[in-house]
Amino acid sequence: MKNQMRDILTNGQFRVNGSLWLEGNGTRFFGPGPVELLQRIEETGSINQAAKKMGMSYKKAWEIVNRLNEIVGSPLVVTATGGEKGGGSSISDDAKQLIEWYLSLRERFRKFMEEESLKLTV
Questions:
Q1: What is the spatial distance between Cα 51 and Cα 11, in angstroms, rounded to a whole number?
Q2: C-alpha angle 79-77-45 in degrees, rounded to nearest 5
Q3: What is the average pLDDT value for the chain, to the nearest integer?
Q4: Where do the domains of the chain lie, and which CATH numbers do they carry?
Q5: pTM, whole model, 2 decimals?
């Protein structure tokens, strides 16, 4: 089978590719978009500003934040209302750990795809 597959794939340049998402309750909820949103919330201190930097509506950003908080079962985004400077948002330590774990997983996934792609050219 290996030789047959290699013979089939020698006619062009092929590579292994894919996306990496976490699912919970049968729903994709954590991948590149939500990770970037959380990182930008941390950077800006604002869901609204994070959404703007991503070219995303505030409503869509809130939907993502609510889905993350609901599926994970603990707040990944913490909001504060009012005050002298208005409200703001931050990400929890759980969110920071989840981002770090996901980025590490994504790097391992990238290496796996790269290694498998090299096998197609042999």
A1: 44
A2: 65
A3: 88
A4: 27-120 (1.10.10.10)
A5: 0.82
Whether the per-residue pLDDT at 116 is higher than 60: the answer is yes
Residue 11's pLDDT is 58
Residue 48 confidence (pLDDT) above 90: yes
Residues in the chain: 122
CA torsion angle 45 107 34 98 (round to 10)? -70
- Spatial distance between the Cα atoms of 65 and 33, rounded to a whole number of angstroms: 11
Q: pLDDT tens digits, residue range 82-93?
A: 666 667 899 999
